[in-house]
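Practice set, problem 2.
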Amino acid sequence: MNSLLPTLPEIEAAARVVYREFQATPQYRWALLSQRLGADCWVKHENHTPVGAFKLRGGLTYFDQLQQRGALPAAVISATRGNHGQSIGWAARAHGVQCSIVVPLGNSVEKNAAMRALGVTLIEQGADFQESREHALGLAAHTGAHMVPSFHADLLSGVSSYWWEFFQAVPQLDVVYVPIGQGSGACAAIAAKLALGHKTKIVGVVSAHATTYADSLAAARVVEAPVSTELADGMACRVADQAALDIMRGQLDHIVQVSDAEVAQAMRDLYSDTHNVAEGAGAASFAAAMQQRHRLAGQVVGVSMSGGNVDAALLAKVLQGWPPSSLGRQGLQPELT
């Protein structure tokens, strides 16, 4: 087993840390979604955490480990498109640590506001996440602030707790679809599956407009890919993380690429059928399942509503039909199988 993957006792310990702040999130079998998909469809509602996304779990365990090692810094810095930043901001506030977060220019207005409400000093710098990350690294080197990465074993143990909950609650899952941003969600699903000894197939989901993980897994090396998604900001990664790739390789059944048009339709479907709001990345796993519904008949399918933090103006636009399905899946590459 990869040394970064948490063991079952480590995941259980991480869950206890998480539960100091909030209880296990629900998972429901939604009848209308199941009817739409043509298979039993279970949704894990990570949009129900106190920051509206799964990332909070990782921030809590990351800071807990710093505290246990007697290494809590005076200040931390990180980069994000929003949900990771809220996670770090929440955990830093709980531990009395100053927190600065770098976001790309033009980032989600409401995610920015949510981070500021947690006491975060927000720095808007860079055209995309990668440029923001590089700026944050530079600031950390200059100021001495502790740089919190987007992928780390101490984040992974906390994130694994949500898949541990899901697999225990619905042990009959045949296949789960997992959105991939920087990789912690997919690697957490792998960790929980292996720790519990389940046989569930894990399918990775990337944006068709941000394909670094699909391209890197196919090439067996990190392949930088341009980012052009207008909807799935939580998946807008330009450079895959090597450590995450090392875990995913051989553990993902395959990769599915979903277009912004498919993600938008999934956001509409999820709202219509469950009256839950999903951000782009939070709807991507259901979009992938719908794309592959021809192969799912008779199976028990799990999808992750990994976050619900979408700006109201963008949500209204999507619910009114943007982007048009005529945009389709232009320029997509074949699936990795």
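Problem 2, part (b): a different protein.
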Amino acid sequence: MNASLRYMQETQKIIQRIMDHEMDAIEQAAEICANSIAGDGLVHMFATGHSRILIEEMYPRHGSFPGFHSMVELSLTFHNQVVGSNGQRQAMFIEHIEGLAQQILKNFVISEPDSFMIFSNSGVNEVIMDMGLEAKKMGLPLIVIVSKEHSEKSTPKHSSGKKLTDIADVVIDNGTPAGDALVDIDGMDVPVGPGSTVGGAAVINAIKSLTAEKLVARGVQPKVLSSSILVGSEKSKEGFEDSYNEYRRRLIRALGG
């Protein structure tokens, strides 16, 4: 069996692990999200590194709806240039600086019924820990999506000596084994093919879908971004405008407006 098929098999295992072990936690996370959104609040999402991908998966894209607020710092997540100005070395250095999360949060007015969702494969780096600790200081629910196996094998780096899994209200495993890469190749001494994006995307879209179901049960109709293939060109355009306007309306409060 070639490496591409082995990768597909390993990602199937990730999805199965999530289905077997994480559905109760996904239910709890969706309830938190529904409480925030139905209460006219926001679910604030934060990540560093490649975990940013999962924030963009949550909103805005087809099949998504406002209520999820992305807190994405380019200095921590913009990896395209790799070297030179805005390079990867700088990003990997900055994510270890304690105090940065507090500076980020000074830009926002955050209070109940808001909640937080933090994405990190390891759950140990300084900036994400600072963000999680600040969420708890504010008394807000904290959801974290990590690789439990990777986190368990990682050493805390924050001065508190804690990991995200130590402080979260809900911990969801992205199903990925420690080290992330899934496929061993003959002649190579390290594996290739990361799986955390696959597992993370499955988790957050499961949360998103269940949150929508819970909102509708409460009489709240999510303003979904929908493809013209499904609803026609005009209705799709109107839906995008309605969704963006709703996102802006919610964000105004978080910006102190």
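Answer key, part (b): The first strand starts at residue 43 and ends at 47. The chain has one domain: 3-221.
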